[in-house]
């Protein structure tokens, strides 16, 4: 009987959960609450809590969408800066939860090492990005050229320094907790920093690969909430009791339609479809190119089954719109699982939100839990189905070789083209 009682805990906890709780201080962080601005509190004081939450979320959502439009207008550099700021804030929110759970032990160097490892990982990833996309600028400046050449060694040395600092900080009575928090920090880095790095890579493929996926997640979040608010009756998943099947299905169809319309509008503008490149002459970003086939209108035959319904035999659309269906479908069907994962994480530590940064919405991480999963999918999708060899990068690497190596590659390429008959035809032309 004692063994059975020890294994059965309230709220589904097991004996191991209870043991861990006693080891980690026996307390959980106090659930966070939203700091709704006093102006909104007074204006909405006559409404019920349900409708008050509706209006608070709605007003703040419009404010965030407006801010999103503004940073898009300001260009890629501002977007990259915002992504970095969001990454840092998300990291701070997750690390703070861990710090609050184990605060009673006063673990040595925990926060210092966490931020140090964040710096190291960012230096590694963004150093790789700078080398790839700003190659000529890096080669032009001597200090940058040295940092680029030995970038990975410097990154490893920085990480090794942090690793040694962690080992030196180990205290006998806190071994288990310190290794637990070491893992906590690294998993947080994997989730937050890696995904934000992929978002930057998506941005450089073209603003449309950045804006459409993010907008689809936002649309799905809004429409699922609205359908669930007005029509929701059937619970979807226990991790998120407020999520309903009606909201899930309504959000799916709304997001697919939204993705098609947004893609159609954006595909007609070069500033959205062209890859983001750095112009060394003007020291600024440029988004001007000849649109690829993805962003040129083409005629498609409508399936016979649907011709009688829509009354058309063909339709003109951009090929990218077909890809947008895949993006919006992922944002609607798989993207929410990022939110469910975050809900499970918050339930594990008995907190309502990651923070109370945004009234009615919680913390920054509460708004970006699905975005990070979406960023990974977009990056994999581009690499698998869209991106081909990049001639500009090949030329950049070619120019860094020694003259004898360049000459060898030139002669090899020339012989290959002659054998295929391409070089001769070009000379005749």
Automatic annotation (TrEMBL):
<keyword id="KW-1208">Phospholipid metabolism</keyword>
<feature type="transmembrane region" description="Helical">
    <location>
        <begin position="244"/>
        <end position="266"/>
    </location>
</feature>
<keyword id="KW-0812">Transmembrane</keyword>
<comment type="pathway">
    <text>Phospholipid metabolism; CDP-diacylglycerol biosynthesis; CDP-diacylglycerol from sn-glycerol 3-phosphate: step 3/3.</text>
</comment>
<keyword id="KW-0808">Transferase</keyword>
<dbReference type="GO" id="GO:0005789">
    <property type="term" value="C:endoplasmic reticulum membrane"/>
</dbReference>
<comment type="similarity">
    <text>Belongs to the CDS family.</text>
</comment>
<dbReference type="Pfam" id="PF01148">
    <property type="entry name" value="CTP_transf_1"/>
</dbReference>
<keyword id="KW-0594">Phospholipid biosynthesis</keyword>
<dbReference type="GO" id="GO:0004605">
    <property type="term" value="F:phosphatidate cytidylyltransferase activity"/>
</dbReference>
<keyword id="KW-0443">Lipid metabolism</keyword>
<feature type="compositionally biased region" description="Basic and acidic residues">
    <location>
        <begin position="1"/>
        <end position="22"/>
    </location>
</feature>
<feature type="transmembrane region" description="Helical">
    <location>
        <begin position="206"/>
        <end position="232"/>
    </location>
</feature>
<feature type="transmembrane region" description="Helical">
    <location>
        <begin position="320"/>
        <end position="342"/>
    </location>
</feature>
<keyword id="KW-1133">Transmembrane helix</keyword>
<keyword id="KW-0472">Membrane</keyword>
<feature type="transmembrane region" description="Helical">
    <location>
        <begin position="109"/>
        <end position="126"/>
    </location>
</feature>
<keyword id="KW-0548">Nucleotidyltransferase</keyword>
<protein>
    <recommendedName>
        <fullName>Phosphatidate cytidylyltransferase</fullName>
        <ecNumber>2.7.7.41</ecNumber>
    </recommendedName>
</protein>
<dbReference type="InterPro" id="IPR016720">
    <property type="entry name" value="PC_Trfase_euk"/>
</dbReference>
<dbReference type="GO" id="GO:0016024">
    <property type="term" value="P:CDP-diacylglycerol biosynthetic process"/>
</dbReference>
<dbReference type="InterPro" id="IPR000374">
    <property type="entry name" value="PC_trans"/>
</dbReference>
<keyword id="KW-0444">Lipid biosynthesis</keyword>
<feature type="transmembrane region" description="Helical">
    <location>
        <begin position="153"/>
        <end position="171"/>
    </location>
</feature>
<comment type="pathway">
    <text>Lipid metabolism.</text>
</comment>
<feature type="region of interest" description="Disordered">
    <location>
        <begin position="1"/>
        <end position="37"/>
    </location>
</feature>
<feature type="transmembrane region" description="Helical">
    <location>
        <begin position="178"/>
        <end position="200"/>
    </location>
</feature>
């Amino acid at each position: 009987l004692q063994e059975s009682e020890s294994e059965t805990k309230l709220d589904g906890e097991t004996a191991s959960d209870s043991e861990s709780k006693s080891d980690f201080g026996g307390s959980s962080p106090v659930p966070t609450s939203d700091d709704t601005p006093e102006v909104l509190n007074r204006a909405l004081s006559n409404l019920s809590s349900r409708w008050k939450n509706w209006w608070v979320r709605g007003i703040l959502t419009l404010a965030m969408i407006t801010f999103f439009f503004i940073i898009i207008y300001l260009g890629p550099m501002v977007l990259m800066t915002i992504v970095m700021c969001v990454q840092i804030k998300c990291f701070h929110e997750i690390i703070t939860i861990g710090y609050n759970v184990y605060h009673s032990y006063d673990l040595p160097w925990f926060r210092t090492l966490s931020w140090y490892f964040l710096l190291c990982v960012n230096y590694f990833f963004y150093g790789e990005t700078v080398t790839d996309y700003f190659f000529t600028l890096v080669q032009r400046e001597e200090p940058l050229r040295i940092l680029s050449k030995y970038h990975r060694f410097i990154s490893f040395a920085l990480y090794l320094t942090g690793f040694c600092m962690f080992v030196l900080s180990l205290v006998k009575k806190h071994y288990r907790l310190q290794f637990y928090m070491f893992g906590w920090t690294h998993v947080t880095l994997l989730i937050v920093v890696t995904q934000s790095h992929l978002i930057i890579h998506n941005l450089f493929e073209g603003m449309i690969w950045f804006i459409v996926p993010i907008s689809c997640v936002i649309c799905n979040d809004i429409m699922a909430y609205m359908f669930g608010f007005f029509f929701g009756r059937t619970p979807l998943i226990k991790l998120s009791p407020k999520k309903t099947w009606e909201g899930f299905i309504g959000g799916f169809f709304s997001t697919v339609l939204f993705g098609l319309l947004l893609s159609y509008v954006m595909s007609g503008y070069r500033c959205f479809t062209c890859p983001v490149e750095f112009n060394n002459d003007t020291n600024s970003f440029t988004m001007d190119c000849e649109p690829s086939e993805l962003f040129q209108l083409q005629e498609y035959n409508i399936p016979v089954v649907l011709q009688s319904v829509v009354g058309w035999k063909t339709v003109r659309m951009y090929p990218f719109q077909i890809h947008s269906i895949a993006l919006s479908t992922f944002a609607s069907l798989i993207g929410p699982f990022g939110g469910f994962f975050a809900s499970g994480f918050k339930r594990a530590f008995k907190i309502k939100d990651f923070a109370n940064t945004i009234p009615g919405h919680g913390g920054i991480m509460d708004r970006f839990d699905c975005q990070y999963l979406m960023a990974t999918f977009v990056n994999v999708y581009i690499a698998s189905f869209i991106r081909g060899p990049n001639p500009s990068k090949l030329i950049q690497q070619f120019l860094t070789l020694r003259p004898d190596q360049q000459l060898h590659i030139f002669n090899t390429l020339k012989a290959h083209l002659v054998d295929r008959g391409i070089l001769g035809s070009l000379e005749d032309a």
